[in-house]
Each structure stands twice: as structure tokens, then as C-alpha cells.
Design brief:
- By secondary structure, the protein is an alpha+beta fold.
- It has three helices and ten strands.
- Helices cover 15% and strands 30% of the residues.
- The strands form two sheets. An eight-stranded mixed β-sheet has the order 5-4-3-10-6-7-8-9, with helices on one face. The chain has a two-stranded antiparallel sheet with strand order 1-2.
- Strand 3 and strand 4 form a beta hairpin.
Length: 161
């Protein structure tokens, strides 16, 4: 789709806009530091992500700095986040709670998919090369803008090892 703008009586045609379809599934592969948006089984876009400092294995307890593994929902947008745009991930599931109970620990919670911390002075390149979250999944802000426009609350997210 091309856009036309009337400036000072002259018609100016702008570059073609890219509109990505809405995603119906988000897949994170922790070992590849990747997040892929899918629509009807077709990959739409792939992004690099940052994780927590202890990314191997699934989250067991609060404070272990691990990103959970399993199928969850991006259940709501979090407008009051200290990060640039954030989605809440529906962790812990019943299975996560049972596993934590088996070990006598709290499973933790408040796992987000978010952009950079507000006021961060680190470059986007440095952030994405480090595991700087506490177990969340982080995108650079420009990627978070695309994600925000393409993913509705209620979309499933699969987090794989």
C-alpha cells in the first residue's frame, strides 16, 4: 500500500508501508535467543531476545533468574511496567506450581516479555548480547513496537529450551 501526501500543493508519494498480519502464536527458543511470530503456521518475523543470567533449564523457583519453559499466554499488556512496553506471561501454570511445591519452594511470578528498562543507558546492541533480565524475555524497543502492533493479549507463547 502506498501513501500519498499533499505538501505545498504538490502530491508526494511515500515509500510502501509494510503491514504485518496479526500473530496467533509466539515461539521463543531460549538456546537460540530467538522469538518468532507465527500466523496460521507461517513464520512472520524473527527477533533476537535477551534472557536472564541463568538461561539453561526451566524456572523452578523465585529468584533463580531462569526463564520458564512451556506453553503460556501473553495474558495482558502491562501499562505500569518499569520497562518500555510489557506483556505479562501467564507463568506459573498449575504444573509449575506443583513442581515448585514438590521441592518446597515458591515458583515466583511476574514474568514479562518487555522492551528495555526505562532510562537505560546501555546501547541496544550491548543489551541484546547480555542476559540482563531476571528471567523475563526482552526485545529492543524498536522490535517491541512491532511486537506490540502484531500481538494481541491472549496470544499463546511457547517457550522452548
Amino acid at each position: 500500500m502506498k501513501f500519498a501526501v499533499l505538501l505545498a500543493g504538490c502530491l508526494v508519494v511515500t515509500a510502501q508501508a509494510t503491514i504485518m498480519p496479526k500473530a496467533d502464536l509466539v515461539v521463543v527458543k531460549k538456546s537460540q535467543y530467538s522469538l518468532t511470530l507465527y500466523s496460521k503456521g507461517t513464520p512472520l518475523k524473527r527477533y533476537w531476545v535477551a534472557l536472564g543470567p541463568n538461561p539453561r533449564g526451566t524456572k523452578l523457583r523465585e529468584g533463580d533468574n531462569k526463564t520458564p519453559e512451556g506453553r503460556y499466554l501473553l495474558d495482558y499488556r502491562k501499562p505500569d511496567s518499569k520497562y518500555y512496553k510489557a506483556y505479562h506471561i501467564s507463568y506459573p501454570s498449575l504444573a509449575d506450581m506443583k513442581r515448585a511445591q514438590k521441592f518446597g519452594v515458591e515458583p515466583g511470578g511476574n514474568i514479562l516479555l518487555h522492551g528495555q528498562r526505562k532510562g537505560s543507558v546501555m546501547s541496544e546492541e550491548m543489551l541484546q548480547r547480555s542476559n540482563w533480565t531476571n528471567g523475563c524475555i526482552a526485545l529492543i524497543n524498536a522490535d517491541m513496537d512491532e511486537f506490540w502492533a502484531s500481538v494481541a493479549p491472549g496470544t499463546p507463547i511457547e517457550i522452548l529450551p
